[in-house]
Specification:
The protein is α+β, with helices and mostly antiparallel strands. The chain has helices at residues 11-27, 95-102, 122-130, 181-188, 219-228; strands at residues 44-49, 76-77, 86-92, 110-117, 133-134, 137-138, 143-147, 167-174, 193-201, 204-205, 214-216. Residues 1-23 have low confidence and may be disordered.
Length: 229
């Protein structure tokens, strides 16, 4: 009578099996994701991104990137800011902090200054505040108000304004980050965006930074930020 082998494989055998599986995956081109190790010293960089700059450090089409402005290695953008948008970009060498800032589930607030074509009426402003239905779902309620033109730098190149059509400035506060959300929201209510500047992200702002300038948070500033989150 044959005896059933009830002996469980040892950890060494499991390792051997996993090793063989990993070897097969390697031969078949299966990539294993690896997390970046957390740095011993966390760096946080605030950058006032100019218009027409990509939020990445390399580009095979030779367009302007972060490398043209920021000499610090191993920092990565937390969240995105479109090439045709301006303003605050936060970079860090910490994967955990990057996730806290960029992941929608943490609801980090963003404040934008938005120049739109036309003069918003109360109905349009209320639509933006309550949320509008986009192709990828309805936007969350937003803080929206009409503001005076902010004291900011001229854009290069300047926006294209149409004769006899006025422009206005809105301040829009969001706690989500759909792709090109602000532009799609204003277009939805009949107010095309002409210029978009992110003024604040979480508790950070571009105050004191000219376009193309950056600064690194010091130890005390970073400690204060950690106490808030």
């Amino acid at each position: 009578m044959l005896q059933q082998n009830t002996k469980k494989p040892s950890f060494g055998q499991k390792k051997h099996i996993n090793k063989a599986k990993n070897s097969r995956n390697s031969r078949q081109g299966v990539k294993r994701k690896t997390k970046r190790p957390e740095p011993a010293v966390v760096k946080v960089v605030l950058f006032n991104k100019p218009y027409d700059v990509l939020t990445q450090f390399t580009d095979d089409q030779h367009r302007k990137t972060l490398k043209d402005y920021i000499p610090i290695e191993n920092v990565y953008a937390a969240g995105r800011l479109d090439k045709d948008s301006e303003g605050l970009l936060v970079l860090t060498n910490s994967g955990k902090l990057q996730n806290v800032l960029a992941n929608p589930k943490f609801d980090k607030s963003k404040l934008y200054w938005v120049q739109v074509e036309g003069e918003p009426n109360q109905q349009q402003l209320q639509q933006l505040r309550q949320g509008v239905e986009l192709k990828d779902g309805k936007t969350k309620p937003a803080k929206v108000r009409l503001i005076e033109p902010p004291a900011i730098w001229p854009r290069n190149p300047p926006i294209r304004e149409r004769k006899n059509i006025p422009t206005s400035w809105l301040e829009i506060g969001l706690q989500e980050g759909k792709n090109r959300q602000v532009r799609r929201m204003t277009a939805h209510v009949g107010l095309p965006t002409l210029r978009l500047i992110r003024h604040q992200f979480s508790s950070f702002s571009i105050d004191g930074l000219a376009p193309g300038e950056w600064r690194e948070l010091d130890t005390e500033e970073f400690k204060q930020y950690l106490e808030q989150i």
